[in-house]
């Protein structure tokens, strides 16, 4: 009585298809899979960081890559570092 039968699973699947639409389901599944891979790699990195044996000094600053503003696809000169001012005199 308390078990989930194939009929229950079919009903749940049909409700999901009706709510989300059949065109969005592949994109949603792809995004979910990508998120799970990222989470898995991050947890593995956290575990390996904890096993390195040496703790970083409290006053040491972490190495940070410079932030970059990404350009739109097809725009060649749009990506630039955040700190670099853009010359607005050129037209």
Automatic annotation (TrEMBL):
Gene3D superfamilies: 1.20.5.3310. Keywords: Cell membrane, Membrane, Protein transport, Translocation, Transmembrane, Transmembrane helix, Transport. The keyword Transport applies. Pfam families: TatA_B_E. It is a single-pass membrane protein. Part of the twin-arginine translocation (Tat) system that transports large folded proteins containing a characteristic twin-arginine motif in their signal peptide across membranes. TatA could form the protein-conducting channel of the Tat system. This is Sec-independent protein translocase protein TatA. The lineage of its organism: Bacteria, Bacillati, Actinomycetota, Actinomycetes, Kitasatosporales. The gene is tatA.
């Amino acid at each position: 009585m308390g078990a989930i039968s194939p009929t229950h699973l079919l009903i749940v699947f049909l409700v999901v298809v009706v709510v989300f639409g059949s065109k969005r389901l592949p994109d949603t599944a792809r995004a979910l899979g990508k998120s799970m891979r990222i989470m898995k790699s991050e947890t593995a990195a956290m575990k390996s960081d904890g096993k390195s044996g040496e703790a970083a000094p409290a006053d040491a600053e972490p190495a940070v890559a410079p932030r970059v503003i990404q350009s739109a696809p097809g725009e060649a000169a749009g990506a630039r570092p955040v700190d670099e001012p853009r010359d607005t005199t050129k037209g």
